[in-house]
Amino acid sequence: MCGRIVARVLKKAWTKGGRIVIPPMFRPSYNIAPTQGIVVFRAGEREWDASIMRWGLVPSWWKDAAELPGQTFNARAETVAEKPTFRAAFKRRRCLIPCDGFYEWKATGAKAKQPYFIHPADPEGIFHFAGLWELWETADGAMESCTIITTEPNTLMAGIHNRMPVILAPEAHEEWLDPGVQGGERLARLLLPCDAVEMAAYKVGPVKGDGENLIKRII
DNA sequence: CCAGACGTTGTT
DNA sequence: GTCTGG
DNA sequence: CCAGACGTTGTT
DNA sequence: GTCTGG
Predict the structure, then answer these.
(1) What are the structural domain ranges in chain A?
(2) What is the pTM of this model?
(3) Which nucleotide lies nearest residue A134, CA to C1'?
(4) How far is Cα A97 from Cα A13, in angstroms, rounded to an integer?
(5) Which residue is the nearest neighbor of B7, CA to C1'?
């Protein structure tokens, strides 16, 4: 479905002066920000279902369409089962968010930050973040949104930041996605920092100041 | 039993 | 969706 | 050898 | 990147 739309867009672009111009929404992103759409895998009828959802979970009961919750792009593993915003999704709507790496900014001074790019140690590897998704319905329509669960840092991440996304090993994927799996303890066992040997990091930059122009530099 | 509240975390 | 307070 | 093409499908 | 047609 999505693929067909992309193909149509490409056809239009190709016939337009012979130059390939990919619309912004289909360009690969090197730096996704909260509120943008990200790819989400969830349990489908037979196989995983891949969707694009808003990064920043909106609870099903959210009323104020003019102002969506602003800080729900991450959920803390330690509290996700209890927080009103996340607990319903934690029970039945868990997902995986694929990612080939992410940036983390290490505070190196009062206002100085040093960004790092963290990626799978295996060059062929893909991270699968543990996430939650939610359906939010209004009179005007519906939206699916998601969040990424964070936990304590492993030894690699500890040198960079005080939190890290929960990265699930392939063996844990099915259990995490299975809505039949209930019980906080069994799920909590999965929400731990992954082994540092699965990750590698390198400095991006160096960049001083608030990192405003970092994005341009990365791209 | 029902009405009403319930926000969350640390990216960019 | 789920919990709390009245 | 080089220029130019190269996309997919039949639903919501 | 790779295949096809001229």
Answers:
(1) 5-105+124-197
(2) 0.81
(3) C1
(4) 30
(5) A69
Cα diameter, chain A? 59
Q: Which residue is nearest to nucleotide D9 (CA to C1')?
A: A4
Within 7 A of a protein CB, which nucleotides of strand C?
A: 1-3
CA-to-C1' distance for A46 and D11, Å?
21
Beta bridge partners of A41: A50, A96
Q: Which of A121, A114, A116, A115 is nearest to A100 (CA)?
A: A121
A171-183 residue pLDDT tens:
999 999 998 887 7
pLDDT of residue A159: 92
Which helix (H) or strand (E) covers residue A1, if one does?
none
Indicate yes or no: strand C within 7 A of the C-beta of A60.
yes
Q: Is the complex ipTM higher than 0.85?
A: no
Q: Which two tokens stand for residue A139?
A: 């009179």
A5-105+124-197, superfamily in CATH? SOS response associated peptidase-like (3.90.1680.10)
Contact A34, A148 (CB under 8 A): no
